[in-house]
Design goal:
With 148 residues, the protein is mostly beta strands. The protein is built from 3 helices and 9 strands; from the N terminus they run E-E-E-H-H-E-E-E-E-H-E-E.
Length: 148
């Protein structure tokens, strides 16, 4: 497995200014999961995420740790390539918010409550995933999604 990540960062004050940052990936801490980002969408909404990033909190999704620079979130697909969480197995594919990067590490936090539209479908929040057609599907935590 690679030990380096590449991330596109955007100047928060001047969105036309960007840079590509290459960094070493740290070892995962207990409870963390590493995703390999397969693909993400760039749309007019992506620009909105940058322009309203401070007001609506989009810049807080994936902080860079450097003032003035941010990672604009994008909707996409990613595969779990390493996990230090007992409820999330490597190999699962997930749809959601990701940075414009090759990899992202996330800390898995158990949900104390589930949205009503999902609670009838699944007792395990980790197992609720979105299929490619955006319908929620109950799957075992170690079962991968297959593209439709």
């Amino acid at each position: 497995m690679t030990t380096r990540n590449v991330t596109l960062q955007v100047n928060r004050a001047s969105h036309g200014a960007t840079r590509v940052i290459e960094t070493e990936m740290p070892s995962l801490a207990p409870g963390q999961v590493r995703f390999r980002i397969e693909r993400f969408a760039l749309t007019a909404n992506t620009v909105t995420y940058a322009t309203t990033g401070d007001t609506l909190g989009y810049w807080d999704f994936f902080p860079t740790g450097e003032p003035g620079w941010g990672s604009v979130p994008a909707m996409g697909w990613a595969e779990v390539v390493e996990s230090r969480h007992p409820g999330v197995a490597a190999g699962g594919r997930y749809y959601g918010w990701y940075p414009m990067a090759r990899y992202v590490d996330m800390t898995v936090t158990p949900m104390t409550s589930m949205p009503a539209r999902l609670s009838a479908q699944c007792a395990n929040p980790i197992a609720v995933l979105l299929d490619a057609d955006n319908t929620s599907t109950r799957r075992a935590p170690n079962q991968s999604l297959s593209a439709k």
